[in-house]
């Protein structure tokens, strides 16, 4: 699976009594699917994955998959504290045609989570997961990061395709890119313009082609009835192949351009959930080698992304979604909603970054 471009880790909307609000989830997914984003991450940290029970997790995964456009790469956050639970969710994600799974490192039993234990955890998940695995290192929540030595070894696994690096450090991104540069290269399917080909895209084309009735079948009229005119099958999707190595994605909007310069192939950004266009503009300018424009676009979101995504967290992102035309709402308890003063600050920061 190709992991290039900007991915939005969507929020999980709730009713006022904290039940899942699935209709709002559908709306958010459908609207984000209309943007130029490369894909969506369902139940990452921004989706409050750790605040959902197993049944709710499966409801969110299935609802989001049904609402997503077929050309968007769909990544499921499935990381749990045990191999067993993580694999079970990876299997569920595969049944709903996700393209890859995002797996954070376990963290509760930190004193016993040695490098050997982490290697065992991720290798065991990758051995049994029906979908490609993306490692997820987010030390501000788990209280420690996946060591680069562990990442280097895991990059050799045939079913581990990348890393989401959410330390906020460009040097850490550069280090991960350098440490995995000798990882085995994989051949992936891409569109003629080198964008990702998703499993849902291929399944949709196959389903359309499956409705075709041959000329002989039309002539016979089946059981003797009148033959009906049937539209020919849709043309097969045109693809080509491309070789990719281990792919590193940054999780920091504040230094997106610098991370791309350091070798990141793209980014999974909480700020892209409320301001997808602003984040996409940085990536497009960088991709087109317009360094000055990329830097200007980076500066354009610098303060807003730092305050909303970095300092205020989930509650800030959710209110920013409300302000920019998506459904955010309140975070689940014990996270507190933003205050009236903070709402005014968010509105001021986003005044020139609306989508």
Task: Provide a short characterization of the protein structure.
With 355 residues, this protein is an alpha/beta fold. It is built from 14 helices and ten strands. The protein starts with a strand and ends in a 5-residue tail after the last helix.
Structure commentary:
There is one protein chain. The protein has 355 residues and is α/β, with parallel strands linked by helices. The protein contains 14 helices and 10 strands. It has an 8-stranded parallel barrel with strand order 1-2-3-4-5-6-9-10, surrounded by 5 helices. The protein has a two-stranded antiparallel sheet with strand order 7-8. Strand 9, helix 10 (256-261) and strand 10 form a beta-alpha-beta unit. The two termini are 28 Å apart. The model is unreliable at 218-222 (pLDDT under 50).
């Amino acid at each position: 699976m190709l992991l290039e471009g900007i991915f939005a880790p969507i929020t999980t909307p709730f009713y006022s009594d904290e039940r899942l609000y699935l209709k709002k989830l559908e709306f958010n997914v459908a609207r984000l699917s209309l943007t130029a984003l490369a894909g969506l991450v369902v139940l990452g940290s921004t989706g409050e994955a750790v605040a959902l029970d197993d049944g709710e997790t499966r409801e969110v995964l299935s609802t989001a998959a049904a609402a997503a456009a077929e050309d968007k790469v769909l990544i499921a956050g499935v990381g749990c504290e045990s191999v067993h639970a993580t694999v079970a969710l990876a299997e569920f994600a595969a049944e709903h045609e996700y393209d890859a799974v995002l797996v954070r490192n376990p963290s509760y039993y930190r004193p016993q989570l040695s490098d050997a234990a982490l290697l065992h955890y991720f290798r065991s998940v990758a051995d049994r997961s029906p979908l490609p695995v993306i490692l997820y290192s987010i030390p501000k929540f788990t209280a420690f990061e996946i060591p680069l030595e562990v990442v280097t070894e895991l990059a050799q696994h045939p079913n581990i395709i990348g890393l989401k690096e959410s330390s906020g450090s460009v040097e850490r991104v550069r280090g991960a890119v350098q440490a995995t540069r000798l990882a085995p290269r994989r051949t992936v399917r891409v569109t003629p313009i080198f964008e990702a080909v998703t499993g849902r895209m291929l399944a949709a084309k196959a389903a359309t082609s499956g409705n075709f009735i041959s000329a002989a079948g039309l002539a016979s009229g089946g059981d003797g009835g009148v033959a009906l005119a049937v539209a020919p099958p849709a043309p097969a999707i045109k693809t080509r192949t491309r070789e990719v190595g281990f792919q590193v994605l940054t999780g920091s909007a504040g230094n997106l351009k610098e991370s791309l310069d350091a070798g990141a192939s793209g980014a999974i950004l909480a700020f892209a959930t409320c301001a997808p266009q602003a984040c996409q503009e940085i990536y497009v300018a960088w991709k087109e080698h317009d360094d000055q424009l990329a830097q200007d676009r980076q500066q354009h979101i610098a303060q807003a992304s730092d305050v909303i995504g970095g300092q205020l967290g989930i509650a800030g992102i959710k209110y920013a979604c409300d302000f920019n035309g998506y459904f955010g709402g309140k975070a689940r308890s014990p996270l507190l909603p933003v205050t009236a003063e903070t709402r005014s600050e968010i509105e001021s920061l986003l005044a020139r970054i609306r989508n």
